[in-house]
Specification:
The complex is a heterodimer of chains A (135) and B (183).
Chain A lengths: L2 H25 L2 H27 L20 H25 L2 H21 L5 E2 L4
Helix pairs in contact in A: 1-2, 1-3, 3-4
Chain B lengths: L2 E2 L2 H17 L23 H23 L3 H21 L22 H4 L9 H25 L3 H26 L1
Helix pairs in contact in B: 1-3, 1-6, 2-3, 2-5, 3-6, 5-6
Classes of the chains: A mainly alpha (135), B mainly alpha (183).
Chain lengths: 135, 183
């Protein structure tokens, strides 16, 4: 797959992530809502950068869908966290594929973006590891 | 007092290792360019990089073994399970075993990586759980940065993708361990 094709796939996933975080933010509260909105903003920035990147590669970025159907119903905070986890997990894989197909100069940044998704995936998992203790 | 990583955390963190290991079997790159059909073989232009990362992963495996030794029962087992990811990572990146079994020589590899996970022997971990966890977080964080840089040195795009995923696994592990500290 070419860099532009990979970028289009990531763009699609990112558009879906922005939509998904709207669903997530509606179902969580407090610090989690802030985190969801922050993630939405981050993905929006990635979306804009991807659109510019695709255009620079000589292609036309596809328009976002009007709506997306989540793979699982988002009915409460737990399902919202599950959706966020899934979104970040899938995006991490897509960004890794883009990193591999991208120009070497962009690869490190794409790799770091992959890591950002992976870290958010851990954050949303809802099963954060417990350090019970201390020295 | 123990580190207590949940079983689900351990399983989830292992997904990246599984993905990386599975990807290693592919022969068509996401870029559509031909990939190395004999990873680590004589014609593989990424031999030095594979060896460098393989040595890094061996060091991380040794570090987790040391950390587990500083922890009690169940916590040791869980940390060991996380550390086992690095065995899978090494196999995925260096299936030919170019990195050997005894760890690094300390030489800087083709990526120019000089981070703690890449160029120094694992520190001796004092027998306190908190110190052990801090050292693991630092090592995973360094490894994540190293893998991001090393991915750019890969000639085979499929290897690049694996290295990127390995770096994501390291970043995730650091986040998980840091989250544990916050509790």
């Amino acid at each position: 797959m070419s860099e532009v094709d990979s970028a289009v796939l990531v763009l699609g996933g990112t558009e879906a992530a922005v939509y998904a975080y709207g669903l997530v933010a509606a179902r969580v509260t407090g610090a989690e809502r802030s985190r969801a909105l922050s993630a939405m903003s981050w993905h929006r920035a990635q979306r804009d950068a991807l659109r510019a990147r695709i255009s620079a590669l000589g292609a036309t970025p596809p328009a976002a869908a009007a709506a997306y159907t989540p793979p699982v119903p988002v009915t409460d905070a737990a399902s919202a966290r599950a959706l966020a986890t899934l979104v970040e997990d899938r995006l991490a894989g897509q960004w890794a594929a883009l990193a591999a197909s991208s120009a070497v100069a962009r690869r490190t940044q794409d790799a770091l973006t992959t890591q950002s998704c992976a870290v958010r995936c851990v954050t949303w998992s809802g099963t954060a590891p417990v350090w019970n203790g201390a020295v | 007092m123990p580190i207590d990583l949940s079983r689900r955390d351990v399983l989830r963190l292992g997904l990246a290792a599984s993905a990386a290991a599975g990807l290693a079997a592919c022969t068509t790159s996401p870029a559509g360019r031909p990939t190395t059909t004999d990873p680590g073989g004589p014609q593989d232009p990424d031999r030095a990089l594979r060896a460098e990362i393989g040595r890094d992963e061996l060091r991380l495996t040794a570090l987790y073994t040391q950390a587990a030794g500083a922890l009690p029962g169940a916590a040791a087992a869980r940390v060991s399970a996380i550390g086992a990811r690095h065995v899978a990572y090494r196999t995925a990146v260096d299936p030919a075993g170019l990195s050997g079994a005894t760890g690094a020589t300390g030489a800087t590899g083709p990526s120019g990586s000089t981070g703690p996970a890449a160029s120094v022997a694992p520190p001796s971990i004092p027998p306190t759980a908190l110190t052990a966890r801090s050292i693991l977080v630092a090592a995973e964080t360094a490894a994540a940065g190293d893998r991001a840089r090393q991915s750019a040195a890969a000639i085979d795009p499929e290897l690049a993708r694996i290295v990127v995923l390995v770096g994501a696994g390291a970043a995730a592990a650091a986040a998980a361990l840091s989250s544990a500290r916050a509790r």
